């Protein structure tokens, strides 16, 4: 009897790998978006700091200077929050990458198992065929000798 076909198992493993790959790419995309936000906030912070320094050197109304300092403090808080989010996204990317590697390895193992199983099955069939041909040759030889 032919052994269990691993085709369905391999198709399932491939689907799992594709899902893991999709999740990994989505995590990388989210990470890049957070990096971009962080870069933008840092640019805003630098711009505000330079503007504040310029206004201080020019001599400006104290209320306007306080507004700039409050805005700088708010942007610094945003940068800290985005940095924390970026670290979380990096951790998620790392986890999804490892998950993808595991799924790819599992699929490759199943493919190797399928190849071994197929080789063993064909070796079994060849052995059976050889035995049948030997039996036919013996029967034919016996019938010629009688």
Tell me about this structure.
This protein is mostly helical and 146 residues long. It has one domain (7-110). Helices cover 93% and strands 0% of the residues. The chain is built from 2 helices and no strands. The relative contact order is 0.13. The mean pLDDT is 90.
Number of helices, where a helix is a run of at least 4 consecutive DSSP H or I residues: 2
Q: Could you give the distance between the termini?
A: 36 Å
Q: Unreliable stretches, pLDDT < 50, 5 or more residues?
A: none
Beta fraction: under 5%
Task: Set down the secondary structure blueprint.
Layout: H1 7-58, H2 62-145
Helix pairs in contact: 1-2
Concise synopsis of the structure shown:
With 146 residues, this protein is an all-alpha fold.
Features:
mainly alpha; 146 residues; 2 helices; single chain
């Amino acid at each position: 009897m032919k052994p269990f076909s691993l085709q369905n198992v391999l198709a399932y493993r491939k689907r799992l790998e594709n899902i893991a790959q999709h999740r990994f790419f989505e995590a990388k995309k989210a990470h890049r978006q957070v990096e971009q936000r962080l870069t933008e906030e840092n640019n805003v912070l630098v711009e505000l700091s330079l503007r504040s320094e310029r206004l201080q050197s020019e001599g400006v109304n104290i209320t306007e200077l306080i507004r700039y300092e409050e805005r700088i403090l708010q942007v610094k808080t945003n940068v800290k929050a985005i940095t924390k989010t970026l670290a979380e996204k990096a951790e998620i990317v790392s986890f999804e990458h490892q998950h993808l590697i595991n799924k790819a390895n599992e699929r490759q193992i199943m493919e190797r198992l399928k190849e071994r199983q197929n080789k063993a099955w064909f070796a079994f069939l060849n052995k059976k065929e050889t035995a049948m041909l030997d039996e036919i040759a013996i029967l034919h030889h016996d019938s010629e000798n009688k």
